[in-house]
Amino acid sequence: MSQIEKLTTEKGKSMLLYEGFIYTVERTTTTKLILRCHNRDCKARCHTNVYMDAFVPQPTAHCHAPQPDRVPAIKLKEEIKTRAATTEEQSSIILHSALRNYPLNAAGQLPKNEALMLMIRRQRTAEAVDANGRLPDKLRKTYRDEDFILHEDNKLIIFTTQSNLSILKQNKHWFADGTFKVCPDDYYQLFTLHAMMTNAIIPLVYGLLIGKSSEDYNLFFEKVLEQDNFEPESIMTDFETGTIKSVREMLPNVLHKGCLFHFSQAVWRQVQSKGLTTKYNEDEYFRLNVKKLIALAFVPLDKVTTGFDLICDQFDDDADDLLEYFEKTWIGEKKEEVLVERNLNLIINYGMFMIVSSLLYLVPTIPWKAGTMHSQLVSQSIIQTS
């Protein structure tokens, strides 16, 4: 006689296996559980006692054949989730070990490796805070047993070590960037501070921020800067208004560099929003002129306005909105022959183009490396996102 086998769903709810059929809990009473067939098109039901080890009475008939090939995949998911929650094994080791004994006849029911890896990582995200709202002990130390929490409250958490801060102090050129893809629900973004080591950009300080205002960035920089007498010569950021304002306030004597990658992204988003995507793809002259706008970053500062005017003459009238955006945002509007600053953006009289281009000769692959680091955090994150 077949035995009742208890399993759990991906969401941690009870599941029952009997004679090749899978049942999930539909509702419970004080004396029994009522389960239905896992196949939503089947009306079969069964009742068990509260321990799910005996039927009261036997299950009703199904409208389909048993599905025993689905069982190994369910058991594999349960196995990797259990190992993820109870061991410190690497995700890849857990997955490869579980797959080693997986039956070939059930291969068609097996999810993709990427989905299984994500399941393992998510299982390791439910790190409970203690009674005082502090992060668990396992997140407070590095594998080298260094303290990893620099600051912790409901507005900001900063992760770094004294070794990292020492490296940061030795480097005169800093790089900062944020990502919104890897962040727990109570925070808005992960903001990282990097330094250059042997032609590579290394993340040294990680901050979980509740927003992207200048006050949020100010608090981050304040907590970092008070740790030592840092003397950076330059810092590279994107063109977020909050970041720009914060750097001016917290690092007033530091050369603020913009990032060509983010600059190019901003221009491309405007091409899209102005309905010029098709024209960009099909019109090689328009495409070249857009690239010329971006290339103004390489023009000497006192020649930028002249270069911009020359490029404008090469555009058709349908690009007027794009050129108006570019002038207002990046060049600055002329008012009585004087360039004025607009909306706190880095424009000509603040040296935006010189800021962008000065970085390029120093570290031409910075944007790619920062983006790669964030992509790796997304794929390997142990922080659950909504």
UniProtKB/TrEMBL annotation:
Membrane recorded as keyword: yes
Entry annotated with the keyword Membrane: yes
MULE transposase domain ranges (all copies): 174-265
InterPro entries assigned: MULE_transposase_dom, Znf_FLYWCH
Keywords: Membrane, Metal-binding, Transmembrane, Transmembrane helix, Zinc, Zinc-finger
TM regions (residue ranges): 187-209, 344-363
UniProt xrefs under Pfam families: FLYWCH, MULE
GO molecular function, one term: zinc ion binding
Domain FLYWCH-type: 7-64
PANTHER family for the chain: MULE TRANSPOSASE DOMAIN-CONTAINING PROTEIN, PUTATIVE-RELATED
Annotated protein name in UniProt: MULE transposase domain-containing protein
